[in-house]
Predict the structure of Probable nitronate monooxygenase.
Amino acid sequence: MWENSLSRLLKINYPIIQAPMAGGPTTTELVAAVSTEGGLGMIGAGYLSPDQLRSQIQEIHKLTDKPFGINLFVPKPYTADGKTLRLAGDLLKPIREELQVGEDLLVLPTFEQDVKTFEEQLKIIIEEQISICSFTFGIPSPQVVTKLKENSIVVIGTATTVEEAILNEKAGMDAVVVQGAEAGGHRGTFYGHEDRGLIGLMSLIPQVFDVLDIPLIAAGGIMDGRGIMAAKCLGAIGVQMGTAFLVCKESGANALHKEAIMEATEDQVVLTRAFSGKMARGLNNGFIEIMSQKEEELPDYPLQNELTKAIRKNAAAKGSTEYMSLWSGQSPRLAKKLTVRQLMNKIILEAETLHSKL
Amino acid sequence: MWENSLSRLLKINYPIIQAPMAGGPTTTELVAAVSTEGGLGMIGAGYLSPDQLRSQIQEIHKLTDKPFGINLFVPKPYTADGKTLRLAGDLLKPIREELQVGEDLLVLPTFEQDVKTFEEQLKIIIEEQISICSFTFGIPSPQVVTKLKENSIVVIGTATTVEEAILNEKAGMDAVVVQGAEAGGHRGTFYGHEDRGLIGLMSLIPQVFDVLDIPLIAAGGIMDGRGIMAAKCLGAIGVQMGTAFLVCKESGANALHKEAIMEATEDQVVLTRAFSGKMARGLNNGFIEIMSQKEEELPDYPLQNELTKAIRKNAAAKGSTEYMSLWSGQSPRLAKKLTVRQLMNKIILEAETLHSKL
């Protein structure tokens, strides 16, 4: 029941992809373990410098000879407006004082730097002969897509609406990750307002399936064999799971972040722009509450992300979950503290048992 | 594959429930046709006077000898605050002028009247020997539940969170409709803030299933055999479908409402409090846009609902979809203009084909 066009395309046993959670969770151990178990491990390389990326790729190669993938953030222009930056600064000031975090140096990122980093990351992916590359927050240029395909790299896009899925197919993507409203972490919406893409998988998968020719990978709230089989019924031939792998032993997420998910209920998971300036889903906490009053006026991603970086880092070091970003999908009650091997064995068995019982 | 504890409980062939869409769609013809085809037709009686309810029950009995159900709104206290009412009046004034709708008489509803109507509706359900009664916007009192059960009436609750599902089970409900964030029309959330209940079915069904003993019915975005099978994989043993039946020939929804859904895309479906003071999902239009600036300050349900009644009625008569409430779930692209018989045959065949292919 597991072999299909996606598993053949990616050369994996089970079309189960570990979501490329940028910012810590996708350690070398996590990525290697998922691939070793027959799924697809992915490095969330969005925040990695080119050197860090190359080094992690080489480390993973030492642990597994199975394919794994890299996810990159597609750079998007943005502007730093003084008034908006001051507003964010004023809101963050009391939190900085409470945590005793000094003023950030405020060397703000620029679009030009982001583009340069993106190009260097792509160069490394080609040089290191990575076989799978996925993209979030947009679609790379035709030149980039052509270059990757010339190097036999499978390219995968991300969509949160039918229109975004079509744009990915037209751009030559080999497959598309369809991110439902349930998904934890950043929304991948790139075409139109962020609110447009908040569609539950029960609605989104079949509507995308009906207009798409390339394989569809479902992401959002899927944590076990039930979700895998449900996604299959709706038209997906693979799944991408974030939160389920985030709480695994091998994940690099902060231990308090993992604990918070294990104790959370589904109604505590909210959407917020507070941490990064881009809509993302995670557990509600003090930081989100404080920022919610001016949430729509905060600077765009990645500016707000830079402005809150020192606070998040300090809060994590101090164990103050009230000021950390506790990304999670809408299914925290389904989270299990397992090793990757235990999790993969569990969900594969669940799906096979459900399959035989239907 | 269709017989299970829910189909036996409700005495129907297929555990497919036509959602009790109050305010027009659930005509005698629609309810009777769904039950005749082996599903469960439901009268959305929330806005019906006791006389209207009795009369419709008797009309349906003439068309079918199969069981059908009634859905009631559980009354909830509310207060009319002068400032809030004036704010709503000011916002509605230009729309009244454009449509040439006179000022409403403003005989506002009261909680006491709502309770009286609810009690009369319950009396009729018992007198007319209805076998199934479901509830939205709350859980009826223990006295009501006991009385209905003494009269061999199956009682079904509505939940949008795990906690609400547990409250329904504790109250003695025989089954619970789990309404995902995808669902069209009013949100059933009754415990805590409306935002709490916006959980996609991919997340909500398994999390409810794991803590519930009574049968679980999935509602939200399900339009065809794929959705039915997916809901089953996740743990539901029945589905409740609204939008799919709303566009059927027998439905009493305005023809322009049906057309609007047939032409809509999934990203045009939004959440709004503008029409009724309670969060509901429908197609975006001018009315929602105008009211969105002050949406959080509008009077609570049912006050705002009364204040907008004349506008909605007039807009419907004039064919002005910009000022009508165009309720829809998040799957409008899956809508088909069919008779109930055609729809039921189609989805049953789809589910059976998918089942045999898995």
User: Anything to note?
Assistant: The CA atoms of residues 50 and 121 of chain A lie 5 Å apart. Chain A has a mean pLDDT of 96. Chain A touches chain B through 47 residues (CB under 8 Å).
